[in-house]
């Protein structure tokens, strides 16, 4: 395994600079949430190019680091990650299920953050992975992100390990609706409610005071009156066994693994790197900052 630094630079080095054929509209890179880093080491870039060239059935795992150049902060990066800039922490699954006021706070903040969060566009890295899929080089993509940017880029051979904020589920009857549809329900229920958003998090969360949250009305499931929750594996929840086993099968069919933009502190993704190592697959890690593969220790995951 080897680290590489400024990995958008690395992707540029793969010769995928020209994406004229894409219909996806792309905002210019927003570097506010990209951690400070050195330019890529040419030797490492060459090594990575060799790695990708030699791979015929690449298994790729991506994390929040791949979306920072789309203007979405990650969790753990020094200086610019959510944990470094704020004392906000993502909602815990048990708290969301147990507490109506926790849900009210979550949805009020999510409602305010949604217009901006849902407007982010894929960056070069997302588009390169989609291109590799079209070329038949990428066998399977598993992402830990819930921002839908791989979907917006057009990736299809993909598993969203932690779900996606663009879908909403009823915890009682399992009915699924689009998050954009829920936004309309929120607007109808809260015609005079207004709040300013302060900064957005990797899951679309923003900061609001308790005062601002108090009068926000949260709709129940229109079919059964059950609790609505984003189709996202919150921290403290587990990824379903079926999904994990499905991804392990895709990994077993692959001949190499590339990790991009993940420190792998969360076990739900790290386990695939462990499985790849057990199978003795070549593994490349492309990340700004240290990763668990280098530390070989660190806090255990909240998401399992
Ligand atoms: Zn329902």
From TrEMBL:
Top-level taxonomic group: Eukaryota
InterPro entries listed in its UniProt record: DHS-like_NAD/FAD-binding_dom, NAD-dep_sirtuin_deacylases, Sirtuin, Sirtuin_cat_small_dom_sf, Sirtuin_class_II, Ssirtuin_cat_dom
Gene Ontology terms: cellular component: mitochondrial matrix
Entry annotation: catalytic residues: 162
UniProt keyword list: Metal-binding, Mitochondrion, NAD, Transferase, Zinc
Location within or outside the cell: Mitochondrion matrix
UniProt cross-references to SUPFAM superfamilies, sorted A to Z: DHS-like NAD/FAD-binding domain
Co-factor note (free text): Binds 1 zinc ion per subunit.
Cofactor annotation: Zn(2+)
Catalytic activity reported: N(6)-acetyl-L-lysyl-[protein] + NAD(+) + H2O = 2''-O-acetyl-ADP-D-ribose + nicotinamide + L-lysyl-[protein]
Amino-acid positions noted as binding Zn(2+) in the UniProt annotation, renumbered to this chain: 170, 173, 221, 224
Keyword set includes Membrane: no
Similarity comment text for this entry: Belongs to the sirtuin family. Class II subfamily.
Protein name per its UniProtKB record: NAD-dependent protein deacylase
Species of origin: Malurus cyaneus samueli
The organism's taxonomic lineage, starting at the top: Eukaryota, Metazoa, Chordata, Craniata, Vertebrata
């Amino acid at each position: 395994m080897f680290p590489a630094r400024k990995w958008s630079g690395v992707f540029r080095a793969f010769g995928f600079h020209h994406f004229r054929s894409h219909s996806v509209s792309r905002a210019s890179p927003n570097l506010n949430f990209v951690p400070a880093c050195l330019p890529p080491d040419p030797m490492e870039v060459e090594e990575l190019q060799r790695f990708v060239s030699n791979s015929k059935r690449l298994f790729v795992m991506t994390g929040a680091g791949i979306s920072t150049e789309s203007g979405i902060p990650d969790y753990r990066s020094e200086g610019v990650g959510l944990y470094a800039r704020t004392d906000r922490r993502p909602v815990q699954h048990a708290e969301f299920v147990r507490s109506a006021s926790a849900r009210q706070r979550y949805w009020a903040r999510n409602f305010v953050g949604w217009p901006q969060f849902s407007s982010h566009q894929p960056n070069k890295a997302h588009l390169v992975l989609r291109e590799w899929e079209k070329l038949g080089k990428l066998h399977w993509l598993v992402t830990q992100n819930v921002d839908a940017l791989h979907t917006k880029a057009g990736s299809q051979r993909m598993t969203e390990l932690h779900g996606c904020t663009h879908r909403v589920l009823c915890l009682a009857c399992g009915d699924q609706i689009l998050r954009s549809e829920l936004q309309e329900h929120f607007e109808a229920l809260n015609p005079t409610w207004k709040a300013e958003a302060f900064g957005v998090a990797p899951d679309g969360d923003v900061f609001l005071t308790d005062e601002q949250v108090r009068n926000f009305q949260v709709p129940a499931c229109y079919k059964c009156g059950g609790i609505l929750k984003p189709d996202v594996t919150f921290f403290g929840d587990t990824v379903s066994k079926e999904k994990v086993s499905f991804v392990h099968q895709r990994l077993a069919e692959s001949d190499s693994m590339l990790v991009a933009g993940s420190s792998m502190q969360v076990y739900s993704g790290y386990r695939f790197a462990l499985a790849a190592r057990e199978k003795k697959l070549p593994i490349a890690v492309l990340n700004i900052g240290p990763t668990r593969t280098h530390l070989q220790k660190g806090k255990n995951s909240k998401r399992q």
